[in-house]
Amino acid sequence: MYINKAMIFGNLTRDPELRALPSGMNVVNFSVATNRTYKDRDGKKQEQADFHNVVVFGRQADTVNQYLKKGSSVFVEGRMQTRSWEGKDGEKKYRTEIVADRVQFGPRGSGGGARSSDSGQGGDDQTPPDDTSSGGGAGIEYPKDDINPDDIPF
User: Which residues fall in a compositionally biased region of kind Low complexity (predicted)?
Assistant: First the structure.
């Protein structure tokens, strides 16, 4: 058995771009930045950012386009896919992206007005963006110091 699963949590680097496929289904593209902090060999704290292209189809695409914008925090679950095409210069181009199965909006405070909800599930009972009853983790206190892997009990 093979597994192709991607899970990222980060912030949108640009507003979602909504388009329609020839079949009429909507598709939205956006990019998510994730970062990590680590110590290099000299013990100096370093930061590294990675950028991920995300594609969402169907009703989720409509919801993402409606509620998310640049700076919004988001959790994306999906699969990795690499597409190839021939550019205008005749050179073969490649793009690796996450095809989202599920998109969850992050907390409002850290993400430019996004609501905390799961757009990957549910029916027509969409709640407005100012509904904060679902929690969203805005009250989570994160440790100020780096986590030492030796302290983890497993």
Answer: 115-133
* Contacts with 3 (C-beta within 8 Å, 6 or more apart), sequence order: none
Q: How confident is the model at residue 17 (pLDDT cuts 50, 70, 90)?
A: very high
Evaluate whether 127 touches 63 at the Cβ level (below 8 Å).
no
> Which tokens hold the place of 109?
């405070």
The helix (H) or strand (E) run that includes residue 54 is strand 45-57
Please say whether the structural domain 6-151 has been given the CATH code 3.90.226.10.
Answer: no
Number of other residues whose CB lies within 10 A of the CB of residue 102: 15
pTM of this prediction exceeds 0.70? no
Residue ranges covered by each domain of the chain: 6-151
